[in-house]
Every structure is written in C-alpha cells, then in structure tokens.
Design a protein that fits this description.
Strand content: 35-45%
Oligomer: single chain
Number of helices: 3
Order of helices and strands: EEEEEEEEHEEHEHEEEE
Number of domains: 2
CATH class of the largest domain: Alpha Beta
CATH architecture of the largest domain: 2-Layer Sandwich
Strand order of the largest sheet: 2-3-7-6-5-8
CATH topology of the largest domain: Threonyl-tRNA Synthetase, Chain A, domain 2
Number of strands: 15
Structural class: alpha+beta
CATH superfamily of the largest domain: Threonyl-trna Synthetase, Chain A, domain 2
Helix content: 10-25%
C-alpha cells in the first residue's frame, strides 16, 4: 500500500497523525505522511514522531523506497522504534521546511530569468542552485538577482494544477529539467503554476505566494563541466 502524501495537497501541514504500517531496516513506514522525501533535488524533511506517551522519535531524514512504494522515515542510530499499528503524531521541522519551500519556489523563478535548458538542481535549507546548459558569458549575477527579486515583489499566488500523462506527453515544452523527468504511470502529473511567469511539472513543496520567498541573493556562478553552468542562491535572511 502506497504512503499517502499529505504534503502534495497542503505543504503547510506541520503536524498530523498516522499509524505505523511497517518497520524496515531502512526506516519507519507510515500510512500517510507530511514528511517530504528526498527527490527532485529537494532534501528530505526532518522532525519528530511523537508517541502517545509523549516520547519523541527524532527523524533525521526522509526517503522514498520505490520497491516498497512507500516513504521511509529514518531515525538516528539506536533509536527505539514504535510498534506496528501504533498511532503517532507527526511533526516536521517547520522553519527548515519553510526555507526549503521558499528556495524551491525561487528556483522556478530563476528558470524563467535564465532561459536555457536546466541540467540539474539542488535545494538545501541554506542555499539552492540550478545548473544550465548555457554560455558562461550570458550569466550575470547582478541581473539574475535583480530580475528574480523584481518577480518576487509582484506577490503572485501559486497554483497547483494536475494534467494527465497524455496531456504532458503532448506538451514536452513544459519540462525544463533535463536531469529529472516528471513521474509517469500514475495517470496524472502535478504542475506548479505561477500565473504569468511559470508553469512546469514539479512534485516539490512551494509557498502559496511568491512574496513569501523574500529577497534572494546570488552567491556565485561557476563552470561545472562542459554543459553545466551553476547559479547558486541564498535567501537574504
């Protein structure tokens, strides 16, 4: 049975309840989760699973296991696991997650400011980056920073859109990332729309309004190989 991904419908859920469905050497499987698993360049969530007694089980990472069709919640070495069937309260590290949401949404804006194929990306709590297949001379840190902050200042609400696999296949132009393809086979694909700015497949977590990103700054631009020009950003705060 697949783990129900609550964050797909509401990335702002900070707590929820769920029962333990299985215990694996790699981690704890729950019937549903608010913890985002590593994927699409975004790191996995951390936080706690709280037992009825109040005991907290620290979650140090979250990963997806394709073979199990489940999300696994990884604990620190030596942690006492819960029981199968036990009802737990889930609590993510919200300040960390919200920074990831802000940075992930900012990368969508960057992909519109730098118009080139995206060859890779990564979102961590302190910084994020996209790699582009573009000539180095076309990348200017001040321009990228200025144009991204101007877009953020427009304060546009983001929207989640679902389309079918067939609809996506008919619109290959929607896929900007060369290194990570959107998942197929479930019958539908999730897109993030920033009206008037961007529309592309993405299963990550995003802010409701791009104004939440706040200011960004470009940390550096560097050459990462024949087809990779890396633009790294951080939040101003």
């Amino acid at each position: 049975m697949a783990t129900e991904l609550l964050f797909r419908d509401d990335a702002y859920l900070q707590t929820a309840s769920a029962r333990v469905t299985a215990l694996h050497p790699q981690g704890i499987e729950l019937e549903r989760t608010i913890f985002y698993p590593l994927g699409g360049g975004q790191v996995g969530d951390t936080g706690f699973l709280v037992r009825g007694s109040g005991e907290r089980i620290a979650i140090v990472d979250t990963r997806r296991d394709a073979a199990l069709d489940a999300v696994l919640h990884l604990t620190a070495a030596g942690a006492q696991p819960p029981e199968v069937g036990e009802l737990l309260t889930l609590a993510i590290d919200w300040p960390r997650r919200h920074r990831l949401m802000r940075l992930h949404t900012a990368l969508h804006l960057m992909s519109c400011v730098v118009v080139a194929p995206v060859t890779g990306g990564n979102i961590a709590p302190d910084r994020a980056r996209l790699d582009f297949d573009i000539d180095m001379s076309l990348l200017d840190a001040q321009r990228i920073e200025r144009e991204m902050n101007a877009l953020i200042g427009r304060g546009i609400e983001t929207e989640t859109v679902w389309i079918s696999d067939d609809e996506l296949a008919a619109r290959p132009d929607l896929v900007k990332t060369m290194s990570v393809q959107p998942p197929h086979g479930s019958g539908r694909v999730r897109l993030l729309r920033i009206p008037g700015i961007d529309l592309q497949p993405c299963g990550g977590t995003h802010v409701r309004n791009i104004a939440e990103i706040g200011g960004i700054r470009v940390l550096r631009i560097r050459n990462e190989g024949r087809r990779n020009r890396r633009v790294e950003i951080a939040l101003v705060d």
